[in-house]
Design a protein that fits this description.
Layout lengths: L1 E3 L20 E3 L12 H16 L4 H17 L7 H8 L34 H18 L6 H32 L3 E2 L5 E2 L9 H5 L3 H25 L14 H7 L11 H7 L3 H16 L1 E2 L4 E2 L18
Antiparallel strand pairs: 1-2, 3-4, 5-6
């Protein structure tokens, strides 16, 4: 906005040395307080940004950061004079910057206890226990524990694989030996049946079987016992255990729980045999099959005579 500069009329209102300048004009700056003009597009964009900002959910890290800032600000702010707590302490003689309690106490605190925020759900002493455990493991590792090299790891893996294969071959050899020696097995009911029906024999009859394949019968007996226990658990009904009927068979008594189960007899001989290495147990089984039944476990063939002509050897390596 333009406005004319006032002229000097010689009446003494202006200094005499000021030259008349009728062409001088001053420019009045427009006020910056008035808001700028906002178009409809800008207004829609601004409202959209405000809506998105209000609707956006902060992430866990942002919430934790904001909580940390608020906590630090609260801890860094001293107790206001207008608060009830400060007024109560002031009536008891407290002054700002001094310690609470008796005067002259050098060990008195002038600052409150620091706040340690616990950010997990573990127990109070769990961190200490973890640190102590890590320290003990580190000391043990330095003193006694030795890192396993790549070669030692491969050797251990190969040794475990060989033991596993020998264990599987032991069970296979026991099943073969059962087929030979289990043909004349007398069952508990007095009948004669062969092969795998020998598992029906009682615990006392199992103890009299050949030690080399006795573990196979023990394993089957244990599986049957567990199967029967599961069946009894699912089929059990409320019934008076003192009731006894002559029409019930052995399986009915077992199902109703009215028949006493046989107590497992300890077999020290079989336990000692099972403590042997799988390779040693397999060697004994293979040799017994060759000597007693002229059967080569690796050839899977029963020879007609003791010479076993055509068998390359006793071990698996000899069979290629």
């Amino acid at each position: 906005m333009l406005s004319p500069k006032p002229s000097n009329n010689g009446d003494g209102d202006q200094p005499a040395n000021d030259a008349d300048d009728y062409m001088s004009m001053t420019i009045l700056e427009s006020s910056t307080d008035s808001p700028l003009f906002e178009t409809s597009v800008q207004r829609r964009a601004r409202k959209r940004r405000e809506t998105e900002s209000r609707a956006r959910q902060p992430s866990k890290s942002e919430i934790a950061h904001r909580a940390q800032i608020n906590r630090d600000e609260a801890l860094g702010t001293s107790l206001p004079v207008s608060s009830k707590g400060y007024q109560m302490m002031a009536r008891l003689g407290f002054k700002a910057g001094s310690a609470l309690g008796r005067e002259g106490n050098e060990n008195a605190r002038t600052e409150p206890l620091s706040l340690a925020v616990k950010e997990n759900r573990a127990g109070v002493g769990m961190d200490y226990q973890k640190k102590r455990k890590i320290k003990e493991d580190a000391e043990i590792g330095k003193e006694a524990k030795k890192m396993e090299t790549e070669g030692e790891f491969r050797e251990r893996q190969a040794r475990e694989r060989e033991q596993k294969m020998a264990e599987g071959s032991c069970w296979a050899a026991m099943r073969v030996l059962e087929d030979f020696e289990g043909e004349d097995t007398t069952l508990g009911d007095g009948t004669v049946d062969g092969g795998k029906n020998a598992l029906r024999s009682t615990t006392q009859s199992i103890a009299g079987k050949n030690l080399l394949w006795r573990g196979l019968l023990r394993d089957r007996e244990e599986k049957q016992r567990r199967k029967r226990m599961r069946y009894d658990l699912h089929q059990s009904l409320s019934r008076n255990t003192a009731y006894d009927s002559l029409d019930e068979g052995t399986q009915d008594r077992q199902a109703w729980g009215t028949m006493e189960e046989e107590v497992e007899v300890e077999d020290a001989e079989m336990e000692e045999f099972n403590r042997l290495e799988p390779a040693e147990r397999l060697r004994r089984l293979v040799e017994y099959l060759r000597e007693k039944w002229k059967y080569c476990f690796w050839c899977k063939f029963q020879y007609p005579d003791e010479t076993m002509d055509g068998c390359p050897g006793v071990t698996e390596d000899e069979h290629g």
